[in-house]
## 1
Amino acid sequence: MPVKEKKEKMDASTEDRIKAAARTVFTRKGYHATKIRDIAAEADINLSLVNYYFRSKEKLFQFVMAEVIDKLLNTVAGVLNNEQLSLQQQVEQVADQYITMLLANPDFPLFMVNEIFSGSDELLKGERKNAIFHSHFFKQLAALQKQGKLSIQPLHLLMNIIGFVVMPFLARPLLERQKIVKGGEFKILMEERKKLIPIWIKGMIK
């Protein structure tokens, strides 16, 4: 194998190890408690290599979260544009997949809020906006509104779904610090919420 090709392969392998380790440590400890040395130890590589590839914990966190954004929005867009699914099935799948992703990436809601208030349009860049706001899901809602079966603007329904899903994760640190939610109770509540959200949304449609 040529030296250049071998180096590129090693670089890709090292980056993948660092990213995998970062995902693990950020999920386990949270962003603020995580140190670069924790990620290096998890990846079983030299601390200087993490700094070489990603420069800082913040940049590495942004990189990992960007991958989460891609995965989440691509999945959600796929559900919202699946013409084989009923409106109720779409809501069920979005709630289920969104909550599953947030349980695996507990720092994502805070990252998402920070991105929005920093002035970044990353969350809805390119085709993402059309894939969601011009989706089959929105066309179904517009049809219901025209038929008089939906008395609210369709955007309210999407905002309600997002609020129902995201708000508990933003409140989680406070709930856990105050011992309102203990141990594994939060995960149990979120699994219940996967089933409750579609019921609540259905109640908003005649």
## 2
Amino acid sequence: METYLVNEFHRQTAARRAPAYQHLRRTLQHAIENGELTPGQALPGERELAKLLDLSRVTVRNAISGLVGDGLLVQRQGAGTFVAERIVKSFSKLTSFTDDLRARGLDPRSTFLERGVGEVTPDEAMALNLSPGAQVVRYYRLRIAGDMALALERTVVPQSVLADPSLVENSLYETFSKLGLRPARALQRLRAIAFDAEQARLMNLPEGSPGLFIERRTFLEDGRVVEYTRSFYRGDAYDFVAELQTE
């Protein structure tokens, strides 16, 4: 790996004029993209990289900081800097954000940006099969693992299903389970997006960063729609997979 980093850094330096930290940032990014640095692998320390490439530690720190901000690297207090591990989410199994992250040994949490009760909008009424004037519970949450914001979620639930918004402390699906209302199936659609200025600010990303938009309608066994969620996931942290079979 050290030989690769040295050769790639020299290639970057020869290819264009730019500050040294940008050359190192591109070098490390290429190493990740080409599999020279693999998910979960530790990077050499700042001092080691500085000595290897004849750079100052400030230059190395700036390059690493940029890649941490992009979600390609993660820093763990007292342990060092590691290549970020992408989260693989299956489209063939109905799971929650909390389920997905706990299965990977991560500690998910939510910051509530908004929550309350209000009258259903026409779009929400159509998605939830509700009559005009019905009351719904709304949540707007920032979903986080460790120190990284992974997604923004806007969720609407019929108040006839969930009477009090405060019942959800972190996981909506855990609350459903406590109420005996665990969802049985869901319909989802996905498309690529670019984060707007407000979304990027909340996610601590540059405006225009790539993301994935997922719209989900979730059903109980009896066919009732209990959830309408629009999620905005950061594109550099997730891989979505689905198993396909012939008939």
## 3
Amino acid sequence: MEWLGPLLTIVFIDLMLAGDNAIVIALAARNLPKHQQKKAVIWGTFGAIAIRIVATVLVVKLLDIPWLHLAGGLLLVWIAYKLLVQEESSHDNIKAGSTLGQAIGTIVLADAAMGIDNVLAVAGASHGNIWLVIAGLIISIPIVVWGSTLFIRLIERFSWILYVGAAILGYTAGHMITGEKKIAHLFGNGGIPEWLFIGLVVALIVGAGILTKAIRKNKQPAHRERETH
């Protein structure tokens, strides 16, 4: 049961941060004949999984270097905030491949470029367990590839899912920061309780996301009013 919580966290993180993958796959394979589109999806996804597993394993190993837990945690705070406030992303730069090889290459390269936040978050949630990383990716990648468009629709309909995702990322970020050996003395006995610090990180991310959205919403009517005049 000790690995079940982190495993579920990894799967959820993958679903939250990899929603663009299905769109990229569809765009990259759109010019191929129907019988080749399926091959592009399968082999492109296989290549993306392989690269992501290798990258995540490397990041897990690198997190043993002093201060990288702190740096990774702070970066994850920003990623969680960005998840809440990001505007609709544009995929105009994803070129459709005219051959099977080109389409597969586009899928793999686009996933590698977009998957940095995913790799960091999964590495943090795995608590150094490589097998958790691999198991989480094997479980979640097929869901992402064939079900992420459905997941995107669910987020659009139930916006609270996005906040749950940001809170989980915030929890992972807080745990990474408190896990930094160089500042471990600041938490626990005689310092700030770890649960309190992690709770504050989650509250900061969610609160900042809500505030940013509220400010944007207030600016929109004024902007539209100027346009009408």
## 4
Amino acid sequence: MVQKAKILLVDDRPENLLALEAILSALDQTLVRASSGEEALKALLTDDFAVILLDVQMPGMDGFETAAHIKRRERTRDIPIIFLTAINHGPHHTFRGYAAGAVDYISKPFDPWVLRAKVSVFVELYMKNCQLREQAALLRLQLEGGGRSVAGESKEPAGLLAELSARLAAVEEQAEALSKQLDDESADAAAVATAAHLERKLTGLRRALDALEPGTGSGTPPVPSQS
């Protein structure tokens, strides 16, 4: 069963959180509420999120300050942030949002379909990265265990390599389709860059698998990085 991605919704107004939940419920992911910047930072200490929807104007710690804290933490600095704001002070205000680390800056009222589409892209990228980490972990177990399967049962190396290759091929196919979708929709530069990073990691994992095939070399191939 595929684990659902978590999406963090940060807004001090309960009615805004309710509206966001209504818009994003069709994505069938786990929606987590936070009514303040402090509450959002607390949630980020324990859970992993695919994307953060962050209101700019909040009492106490505003969206810009919250984003700054998120980007300073190694655990959370790569999580995409979409700023939502009910005010528009011109290009300078928008620039401040991007300077704070946002991948997008959306003014209210916004088109629900557009917001849902943008969030879905980052959810897909997050899920592909999770799948890639699983494949890398399985490959690492193969290299360290000398052909032992994840469940601890004996399995021929050739059979396990074939299984790994098939799983990786499925992820590669999905990543390629997602990249084409981003190109067709002229997506945000941050989403395109994230997709390119995913493809590079997939290429590294494929090379490591190919190096394990009989007759391709005697050395132990490098294990792909999970970063």
